[in-house]
Amino acid sequence: MSKQLKESLTVSPFFLLFLIHSTQTGVGLLNFQSSIVKGAGQDAWVSVLVVGLSFHIIIWLMYYLLKKSNNGDLMSLHQQLFGKWIGNVLNIFFYVYMLLVITTIIRSYIAVLITWVFPYFPIWLLSLILLFVITYLVFGGFRVITGICFWGIIIPSILLFTFYFPLKYAYWTNLLPVFNHSIGDFYVSAKNCILMYSGPEFLLIYFPFIKNNQKSQKWAHISQAYTTILYLFITFVSFGYFSHGQLRHITWPTLMMSKIIRYPFIERFEYVYIFLWLLVILPPCCMALWGGFRILKESFKFKSRKSLWFSIIIVHFMVISVKSKLDVERIGTFMTYVTSSFLYFYIPILFLLLLVYQAFKKAGRLGGN
């Protein structure tokens, strides 16, 4: 049975709607269209839908694992199934995954800043500025991070109204013909969708901080459904506005659509997108950094501040080691394989191992009787 922390440290199950959705909408929302179109073309929306639906199964598996975990998190589940030593080794891999997540997000956002706004700014300085903001928020604890997740959805949601402008120039014939691609094409698009949907895996760490977490699953599914609908909407708008040939060669389709927006009081509306997007990347970065030092604290009893600063230093050097645009694409490709392996292979394997563990435990009790 999973552990429930004292009420002063927890948040309402309703906030799962913001905790999960905010960690799924990062920099990928600016450029996912150019990745998914390489497989199924105009039919890539099918892959977006299928992957979104498949995450409901992953969330169900996560909840089953967490409800059976001793402390309600993945760290204690590892030790429960594999013992202390092997369990802690697996926790280290999960810690490295957290660092890779925050490195990928920060470096991708820096790439946007350098390309569109600050072409002569050094990477190390932008990295330090972003990490300073993230660290300041993480020091506030999980409830502060939950607040950032809330506002990281509410404020940027204003930008959804700006899609009215590209909708005026959309050619819906770009979506035709329908269902004229092979299974292999749909698989390529689906594989490129996985990274943009990543984020529910943080639930494996903060589950004990959810009040009445045993009954909170519906909010996780509602959040996932909203994310799927949002990505489908942006996919349809992008495919209607751009041709398939254009999407294959545009790096940031969402930002390119914002360039057509004109107001008397602002000429370059894409700058509004870019700077408001800081609120979009903060939630997953804060959650990954907080999750990283919590893994060290729970697994190895490290002090919170030391493990936090240790994680920040590692992330900074990882970020500045990614120099070129090609390196950014490579780390994105690498994270796609890592995330898909973790969600679609490791989580189901843990589920099967837990079933075996429970069967042996039950048989042992029956044998003892």
Structure characterization notes:
The chain is an all-alpha fold and 369 residues long. The chain is 74% helix and 0% strand. The protein has a single domain (7-368), classed as Up-down Bundle (Amino acid/polyamine transporter I). The protein has helices spanning 16-24, 28-40, 44-68, 74-82, 84-116, 123-138, 142-154, 164-168, 183-197, 203-206, 217-241, 244-249, 253-258, 270-300, 304-321, 325-368. It is built from 16 helices and no strands. The model has no long low-confidence stretch (mean pLDDT 91). Helix 1 packs parallel to helix 11. The two termini are 23 Å apart. It is globular.
Short characterization:
With 369 residues, the chain is mainly alpha-helical. The chain has helices spanning 16-24, 28-40, 44-68, 74-82, 84-116, 123-138, 142-154, 164-168, 183-197, 203-206, 217-241, 244-249, 253-258, 270-300, 304-321, 325-368. The protein has one domain (7-368): Amino acid/polyamine transporter I.
List the helices and strands and how they pair.
Elements: H1 16-24, H2 28-40, H3 44-68, H4 74-82, H5 84-116, H6 123-138, H7 142-154, H8 164-168, H9 183-197, H10 203-206, H11 217-241, H12 244-249, H13 253-258, H14 270-300, H15 304-321, H16 325-368
How much of the residues is beta strand, in percent?
A: under 5%
- Percent helix range: over 70%
State the helix count: 16
Low-pLDDT parts are none
SSE series:
HHHHHHHHHHHHHHHH
Q: Number of DSSP strands?
A: 0
Mean pLDDT: 91
Q: Specify the structural class.
A: mainly alpha
Instruction: Return the domain count.
Output: 1
> If you compute it from the alpha carbons, what radius of gyration comes out, rounded to the nearest whole angstrom?
21 Å
